[in-house]
Amino acid sequence: QVQLVESGGGLVQAGGSLRLSCLQSGRAFVMYTMGWFRQAPGKDREFVANINWSGEDSNHADFVKGRFTVSRDNAKNTVYLQMNSLKPEDTAVYYCAARRATLSVDPFGYDYWGQGTQVTVSS
C-alpha cells in the first residue's frame, strides 16, 4: 500500500511563490510516476504536472508552463511542485498522485492519492 502526504499549501498574494511537497511511504518510490492535480470549488479535478520515475521526463499543463516546476528527490521519497508567479485562478486544493506506469495526464489513471493541500492566492 502507498501513502501520500502533501504539505506546503497556504495563503499567498498574487505574484508570490509556494513549494508543495508530497512524501510517499509504503513502497519503493522509484517504481512510481508521480502527478500533481488540482481541484477548485465546483470544478473537475485537472492535471497540473507529472514526472517519471527518474525525474528525466515531465509534463506541465499549458496554464502553468513557465510558472510551475515539478521535481522529485528519490532519496527522500518526495515529489515537489514549485509554484511561482501565482495567480488568483490557481486557488484550489492540490493533490499528488502515484501510478505504476508511464506518464499520464488522466486523473483516473492514478492509483494512489494524497489528502490534498489548500492553496489560496489573494488578489
Count of individual beta strands: 11
Instruction: Please write the string of helix (H) and strand (E) elements.
Output: EEEEEEEEEEE
Quote the average pLDDT.
96
For the biggest sheet, the summary is:
7 strands, mixed
Short note summarizing the structure:
The chain has 123 residues and is mainly β.
Notable traits:
50% strand; four-stranded antiparallel beta sheet; seven-stranded mixed beta sheet; 123 residues; globular; single chain
Describe this structure in words.
There is one protein chain. The protein is globular. The protein is built from no helices and 11 strands. By secondary structure, the chain is mainly β. It is 0% helix and 50% strand. 32% of the residues are buried. Strands 2, 4, 5, 6, 9, 10 and 11 form a 7-stranded mixed β-sheet that branches. The chain has strands at residues 3-7, 10-13, 18-25, 33-39, 46-51, 58-60, 68-73, 78-83, 92-99, 112-113, 117-122.
SSE layout and pairings?
Blueprint: E1 3-7, E2 10-13, E3 18-25, E4 33-39, E5 46-51, E6 58-60, E7 68-73, E8 78-83, E9 92-99, E10 112-113, E11 117-122
Parallel strand pairs: 2-11
Antiparallel strand pairs: 1-3, 3-8, 4-5, 4-9, 5-6, 7-8, 9-10, 9-11
